[in-house]
Every structure is written in C-alpha cells, then in structure tokens.
Amino acid sequence: MWQGHTSGGSMAKRSGILATAATLGLVATLLSACGSDSDDALVWYINPDSGGQAAVAKACSKELGFEITTQVLPQAAGEQRIQLARRLAAEDPSIDLMSIDPPYTAEFANAGYLAPLPDDLQQRLRDQAFTGAAAAATWDDQLVVAPFWSNTQVLWYRKSFAEKAGLDLTQPVTWDQIIQAAADNGGKVAVQSNKYEGYAVWINALIAGAGGAIATDTEKGADATIEVDSAAGDDAAGVISELASSSAAPADMSVAQEGQAGATFGGDTGAFMVNWTYIWTNYDATQPDVKKDLGFARYPQTVAGEESRPPYGGIGIGVSAYSDHEDQAMHALECLTSPENQGINAEMTGNMPSSPAGYDYPALKDIYPQELLDLFQESLDAAAPRTVSPYWSDISGALQSRFHPPSSVDEDTPADAQKFIEDVLHQRSLL
C-alpha cells in the first residue's frame, strides 16, 4: 500500500511513512545502480520473460531513432511491485518506462507515480485494446498505462484421461465435474494455491464465476464494500474445500504455483489443470507425448449453468512521473504496445496480445490452432480482473491469509476473510 488520496486521508500519511522507512537507507545505492549506459537512452523496467520485451525494445529503438534499454525485475509479481515502488517513492529519475501487473496499476496511479497519458494517446490505446484490457488499465476514469499483453486461463486437459473418464469437454463443465472425474479415475486437478498472488487469482475467478465480487465501491478507498462473505464466497470456498479434501488434490496443492501445476499435469496422474496461455508450448521440447495429448476448453463453471469468469492477467506499460524523458517515453510507449509488437512478444513468450489486431500477427497462427486463439479471445472477453483498487495488495494479502492452506477452507472461511480484510483496511489488524 502506497501514498495516495482517499476519502479518509489516512492512506497518504501512512503510506508516506512506510515508503520513507523502506527507502531512506537505500536511496543512494538505488540511484547509482539504476542508470543506463547512456544518458540519452530510455530505461524500461520489465518483468522476466524469454526475450519478448527486449526484442520489441530493439525494434522500437530502430523505429524511433533513440535507444530503449531494459532492466529485469524480480520473478514474483509482489517483489516487482516492491522494487518499483521503492524506486518511485525515492523519485528515481532513471526509470522511464515500467511493466506493471494489472492489480497494482490503480495503486501506482493513485500514488502519483505514473505520468498522465495525453488524451489523444489514451483514445488510440483504448480503441485498439480488448475491453477488459482497457478496463484493467484504467483508474479514476483515465487510462493510466498502455495495455501490452493480456493473459487468461483456460482448462487444459489430457485428452486420453477425459476420454477414459467419459467427460465431454465440448460442453461447459463445472469444477465439481472435473474434480469428480479426476477422483474417480486416479487423476489430479492442478491449480495455483500457494500463499501468493496466484491463489487470489483463483479465488477471484471462483467468486466472479458465482456472480459475485471480492469488493465493490473501490473508489471509496479503505471504505470499499467487501463482499467475500456472500453466497458467491460460499460457492468459491466450497470448490476449494471439495478439491483440497479430494483424492484429486495434488500432494503439493498448498505450495503449488504455475510451474508446480504444470509439472503435476505433465506427470503420470495429470488430468486437468487451469493455467495461463503459455501452456500450449510448455511441453514442446521436454514432453512431446504430453503435448500430443493436450486438450483445451473454457474455464470451469463455479456454479452449473452460470458462465465462468476466467482469470485476467497481463502487463500494462506505464511512464514514470519522475522520468527526465517523458515526451520520448510517451512515443516509446505507443510503439512498444503496437499490435505488431504485441504479436512479436506473443510469438516469443506465449503471453498473448492485448488487442484483437495483435492476434492477426501471422506467426501466431502457425503456433496456435485457430480454435485455441478463438478460445483465448472468448475467455478474455469474459474474464474477471481482480478488484481495481489502490488497496488491492492489502485485500489480496488478507484474503490469502484466511483462505490458506486450502485444506483449512470451510463454511466459516468467507466470513473470517471478510472480517480480516476489513480490519486490515481500517488498521485494526496487520497482515
């Protein structure tokens, strides 16, 4: 949680103290360590990938006539947030551009860390983006970052297992169906349920799939309405409890992140998995037999008959409010997030474009079946972003605290989680 303006006014004071304490002893080191090789080069802080962002930086450097260099942030999204926030709290001028995970966009914008995008640029970026991508990039009715790539999850399944279980994946399926099919046939359902942001992604998708939301009225800051203790929250807790107590639960369920889920799915008991778009190429080089057996379908329904709300992830690129090259950075921003460069990045990383035009990049049609490209776009249209709030880090941390480990989730969990989230937001409890 960082400096910002809220109805109560406490956020700025409390966050300013935290930011100062976290950065005071590090400012000199950070500022000397962040510089680029050239004073004229733009520095773009990127999340780790397999070279996609560096490739588009090189392409835009050539197109625009000035150099865009990259600095790689830590692997975990939470650590990326902390490193960027520390540098920005120190008003570090060596950051020009930054890749930001959607749940932290509102926090950075509300804190004044992002340079406002010109109105005409906002309009062009909105016009090219998926509706959900633009919504995730918006705070206080302003587009504050440029959507770069938009990720979603689908249900991956082993075709041989689904056939053995007699489950028709051409029709919508529920979590209950896949858990029972896996349990009855010696398989596992792989999810992300370690105590980290990926678990909040799953909980959010389950609640949204039952017609609910974790929080509403987020413009009220800490006074947002928390809605975890609800019928939708009960449905979400029911799914988690059902899987955790089932023989379909992987042994490492309580510590599973994306990689562990992929390993479980690729093992002898692999049956079903929810995971991001990169999975399609994940087994190409290492487990071609798994790739041949890889099927895909719409994200499972929380409640039978109600459309699922797949997770939404991705990256938006923002311009630092403290950049000494703001005008150049705005030009770079538009170039980096052009549909063609979204396509280049998707080809190299498996992180799919944030615009329909990006899906027209020819190489993607050589890598992915058209029906999978269609499913990705359908899922993005239906996706449920995590709560857009400058307090998301607190909300997410409190939610994870009460829903973890998955084996502890029961009928009391939604109410316990809601109370704890409210207590944290109003400074009655600490994470």
Automatic annotation (TrEMBL):
Gene Ontology molecular function: any one: maltose binding
GO CC terms: ATP-binding cassette (ABC) transporter complex, substrate-binding subunit-containing
One matching Pfam family: SBP_bac_1
BP-aspect Gene Ontology terms: maltodextrin transmembrane transport; maltose transport
Keyword line: Signal, Transport
Keyword match Signal: yes
Claim: Cytoplasm is one of the keywords in the record: no
Matching InterPro entries: SBP
Superkingdom: Bacteria
Membership in a protein family: Belongs to the bacterial solute-binding protein 1 family.
Protein name: Extracellular solute-binding protein
